[in-house]
Amino acid sequence: MLKDFYKFSDEAGTDEAGRGCLAGPVTAGAIILPEGFSNSILNDSKQLSESKRELLRPILEQEAVTYAVCHVFEDEIDKINILNASFLAMHRALDNLSKNPKFILVDGNRFKPYPSIPHECIIKGDGKYMSIAAASILAKTYRDEYMAKIHEEFPMYNWKKNKGYPTKEHREAIKKHGLTKYHRKSFRQLPEQLSLDI
């Protein structure tokens, strides 16, 4: 059973999706849910089927006090590294909320403090607090939608199915076709990149 609030009613939950991918953006969601909000399906996005996530997204968008989603793209990920890009995506999502939260709940164990608003990092928070679970669903569905769109441009990588994660199919496609503009150049795209031919 997910809890509603940690300390305050005006709490924003934030979470990201796509951190371990070889291609595409890292995407963060931030959301403030109203007092008394409940939903029997809502859970960590990874525990839900795609159809349930898609069902929940419009409900969350309609019911939220405010919400925002932000992509940080490959070029920025390559410049500042994926951890900093994840923090940046969450900060930008928080920047775009129409109301300032009193408190920020962050999924995971690390976060770069957001100016003048206290926060708490919650390990596996997307399975404990409604606002983090809701943020995880927004981040995941918006990122999946983006990956399905760029799949049309580069269907040989099958991002519609693997979403840019380092699956065997994705790595085989990189071997065969090389990298696209959507690939993260700072990531080890193929395992053999570590070995030197001497």
Automatic annotation (TrEMBL):
It comes from the Bacteria. It holds the Pfam family RNase_HII. InterPro entries: RNase_HII, RNase_HII/HIII, RNase_HII/HIII_dom, RNaseH-like_sf, RNaseH_sf. Its EC number is 3.1.26.4. One of its GO terms (molecular function) is manganese ion binding. Residues 9-198 form the RNase H type-2 domain. GO terms for cellular component: cytoplasm; ribonuclease H2 complex. Manganese or magnesium. Binds 1 divalent metal ion per monomer in the absence of substrate. May bind a second metal ion after substrate binding. The keyword DNA-binding does not apply. Keywords: Cytoplasm, Endonuclease, Hydrolase, Manganese, Metal-binding, Nuclease. Its main location: cytoplasm. Its cofactor is Mg(2+); Mn(2+). Endonuclease that specifically degrades the RNA of RNA-DNA hybrids. This is Ribonuclease HII. It comes from Flagellimonas nanhaiensis. The lineage of its organism: Bacteria, Pseudomonadati, Bacteroidota, Flavobacteriia, Flavobacteriales.
